[in-house]
Specification:
By secondary structure, this protein is an alpha+beta fold. The chain has helices at about 40-50, 90-100, 105-115, 135-145, 165-180, 190-195, 215-220, 225-230; strands at about 1-10, 15-25, 30-35, 55-60, 65, 75-80, 150-155, 185-190, 200-205, 210-215, 235-240, 250, 255, 270-275, 280-285, 295-305, 310-315, 320-325, 335-340, 350. Helices cover about 25% and strands about 35% of the residues. Pfam families: ABC_tran, TOBE_2. One of its GO terms (molecular function) is ATP binding.
Length: about 350
């Protein structure tokens, strides 16, 4: 288990991490997610002991390790680049890790176990420059896990890999993490990585924790506008909460009906932002609309074909641009006049 309490880090007058706290339960996979410069890597490096925090504390399995040197924290680290010793073979790289951490078990059996786990047993006598980028990343994971650390820290480990390899590697990483059952903290700016790999996600912005929770919770119920806009695509409407029998947000030119369970006490009624995810928006011909709630007309201004779906941009009559997903088999073209519609219960109100 990892617990970070009120972690703060200054670099001179620059506040890089601002009073950040979170907890990761034993065996869980958590991700620090945010844009470049938000403080996520600084937080991870403080947990590893690579930098000293200005204040706050880091606890591993109930023990305060804030003043413990990195080599005594029993942490496995994987960085953006493989950081393998180029003059050593794959086997020697793993053996060095076991030696430095003072691992008491059978070194040969441990090396074989983890090389097999990352599907690299046949490459034990190869040197890093004889391996592909993906193979080097696998060895980095094996070296970080071979001495059985209390926690695994991953600092954007898939950077630089092509899209297909990144997707393959993130599935492999998650499978290995679950097999080993090691508590893991992953740092990335990639929303799809965070949502697909994690049990929990901690979203950061400008050195602060914006929101933490399960991926589905953050995506469906963002607590702030930053989280709503950073986690996935959406269409935003701005307006005021109207006093009617059912919740309605009045924009400059239209009305957005929202779910009956909307808690208006949590928003400023004079400045309301509403978001609709693209998968919740139906795009069709006017004759196929279902009722007249949240129904708007416009024309398609852009279509991006993505294989499994098409991404549409529809310019509404009031000037708003809506982003929606469509089946690629649906016969729509740029310039088509269409109707968009979405369910009030799928509207996010902030």
């Amino acid at each position: 288990m990892l617990e970070v309490k009120n972690l703060t880090k200054y670099y001179g007058d620059l506040l890089a991490v601002d009073d950040v706290s979170f907890r990761i339960e034993e065996g869980k996979f958590a991700t620090l997610l945010g844009p470049s410069g938000c403080g996520k890597s600084t937080t991870l490096h403080a947990i590893a002991g690579l930098i000293d925090a200005s204040s706050g504390s880091v606890h591993l399995r109930g023990k305060d390790v804030s003043d413990v040197p990195p080599y005594e924290r029993n942490i496995g680290l994987v960085f953006q680049h493989s950081a393998l010793f180029p003059h050593m073979t794959v086997e020697e790289n793993l053996r060095y890790g076991l030696k430095m951490q003072g691992f008491d078990g059978d070194h040969e059996a441990q090396i074989e176990k983890y090389l097999e786990m990352v599907q690299m047993l046949d490459h034990a006598d190869h040197k890093p420059d004889e391996l592909s980028g993906g193979q080097q990343r696998r060895i980095s994971f094996a070296r970080a896990l071979v001495y059985e650390p209390d926690i695994l820290l991953l600092d954007e480990p898939l950077t630089g890999l092509d899209r297909v390899l990144r997707e393959d590697m993130r599935n492999e990483i998650r499978a290995i993490q679950q097999e080993v059952d090691v508590t893991t903290l992953h740092v990335t700016h990639d929303q799809s990585e965070a949502l697909s790999m994690s049990d929990d996600v901690i979203v950061m912005s400008e050195g602060k924790k914006e929101q933490a929770g399960a991926p589905a919770e953050l995506y469906d119920e963002p607590a702030t506008e930053f989280v709503a806009e950073f986690l996935g695509q959406s269409t935003k409407f701005q307006g005021q909460l109207a006093e009617t029998s059912s919740p309605v947000v009045q924009t400059e030119s239209t009305e957005i009906h929202v779910g009956d369970d909307t808690d208006s006490s949590q928003v400023d009624p004079d400045d309301v932002s509403v978001y609709v995810r693209p998968e919740e928006i139906d795009v069709h011909q006017a004759a196929r609309t279902n009722g007249n709630i949240n129904v708007f007309t416009g024309s398609i201004s852009h279509i991006e074909y993505l294989g499994h779906r098409a991404e549409l941009e529809v310019d509404l009559d009031d000037g708003t641009t809506v982003t929606a997903f469509s089946r690629t088999s649906q016969e729509l073209a740029v310039g088509d006049d269409v109707t968009v519609q979405f369910d009030p219960d799928e509207v996010i109100v902030l």
